[in-house]
Write a structure and sequence with these properties.
Number of strands: 0
Helix content: over 70%
Oligomer: single chain
Distance between the termini: 57 Å
Structural class: mainly alpha
Radius of gyration: 26 Å
Strand content: under 5%
Length: about 350
């Protein structure tokens, strides 16, 4: 086949049933070469095959039980100790790229396989948790395909997302490890949750409320990692932007801005990314006129804001509060003062923040 052009290679493989079967059969003894060839073939298909014709490719791969072979290959890579980790990571990326390609054609075959063969899902989540960052991002992108599908059985697929996929992803987050791979994983998880809010707010609303997802994510604040903290604050901002009445009420009723104000008070005199992210969230609440949260902020944190001499950034928030409440002014028991000791401004040293 070395003398064939790309189209001839494609035609030969698709029209000769035994070729893909033979390729997958070589995953055992010639894994690296087989994965590399498979990845090259997928690249050819992406380049020369039109959308409708790709269904024939998908059908051919499913006839070969491709997902089973990919699962076995990932298992084999987990056990390999004689190959350097960088090569193993490249092969894992290539296998995930094959899964993504097939799932972009049609997500239902992968869903159907995972439903009856959960081991592949476990392997994917394991590699999203402890894999190279590029692999983590790629697997995150794969999972997002379940959220964007237009399959006639979309409701059934979303049931799988909320009953199987998201709980399994959250299970890994509960480990709360101070490692870079955990921070990368947490960011991918938060990106998936954000995607859910953008695409189907009702399902994610009840999932966040029922499983107290924000409270679980907030436990990550204890790790004192700036990147993770910013990601969590960004998710809260996305929730505010969604203007979901139930989630807004949930945030206020469960005092879920308290931890974010603690972070702000610790960083308000540093003019850093954390301080800016908090202020952007608060400003978003004001400009979107989220009345429930404006009242909640002024009535619960107003006195501390005044005590810390931070009224200026919140001046328009206080004005909005008065407008919402027919001219009623907040009844603070403290007056704005300039602290004698800078430590009173909440400038505690936080090495990673």
């Amino acid at each position: 086949m070395i003398y064939y052009n790309n189209y001839e290679i494609y035609e030969h493989i698709i029209n000769h049933n035994e070729y893909l079967d033979s390729l997958f059969a070589q995953f055992g003894d010639l894994l690296e070469d087989s994965i590399s060839f498979l990845n090259e073939f997928i690249s050819i298909v992406r380049t020369i095959v039109q959308n409708e014709a790709k269904f024939a490719v998908l059908k051919r791969f499913m006839a070969c039980d491709a997902f089973t072979h990919i699962t076995q290959a990932l298992e084999q890579l987990e056990r390999m100790e004689f190959i350097e980790s960088e090569k193993i990571n490249i092969m894992k990326i290539q296998l995930v790229e094959v899964i993504i390609f097939l799932s972009q054609i049609e997500i239902f075959p992968l869903y159907n396989y995972l439903k009856s063969n959960p081991h592949l899902l476990q392997l994917l989540i394991k590699n999203m948790y402890k894999g190279d960052q590029g692999l983590q991002i790629l697997i995150g992108d794969l999972f997002k395909l379940f959220l964007e599908n237009d399959n006639p059985k979309k409701s059934e697929i979303l049931d799988f997302v909320y009953c199987n996929l998201l709980p399994a992803l959250m299970e890994q987050y509960y480990k709360l490890e101070s490692s870079q791979y955990f921070m990368n994983y947490a960011q991918e998880l938060i990106n998936i949750l954000s995607h859910c809010i953008f695409i189907h707010g009702t399902r994610i609303r009840y999932y966040i409320i029922q499983h107290k997802i924000l409270q679980e994510l907030y436990k990550g604040f204890k790790l004192n990692n700036k990147t993770l903290t910013l990601a969590i604050i960004r998710l809260v901002k996305i929730i505010v932007s969604s203007k979901d009445e139930f989630l807004i009420k949930f945030i206020a009723n469960y005092n879920l801005l308290s931890d974010i104000f603690k972070i702000y008070f610790q960083n308000c005199n540093k003019n850093n990314l954390l301080s800016s992210a908090c202020l952007e969230l608060f400003e978003k609440i004001r400009t979107d006129n989220v009345k429930k949260l404006i009242n909640y902020i002024v009535e619960n944190f107003g006195e501390e804001i005044i005590r810390r001499n931070l009224k200026k950034p919140f001046e328009r928030m206080f004005q909005k509060y008065e407008q919402i409440n027919d001219g009623k002014t907040p009844n603070f028991r403290v007056q704005e003062v300039v602290p004698e000791n800078p430590d009173q401004l909440g400038t505690e040293n936080n090495a990673q923040m």
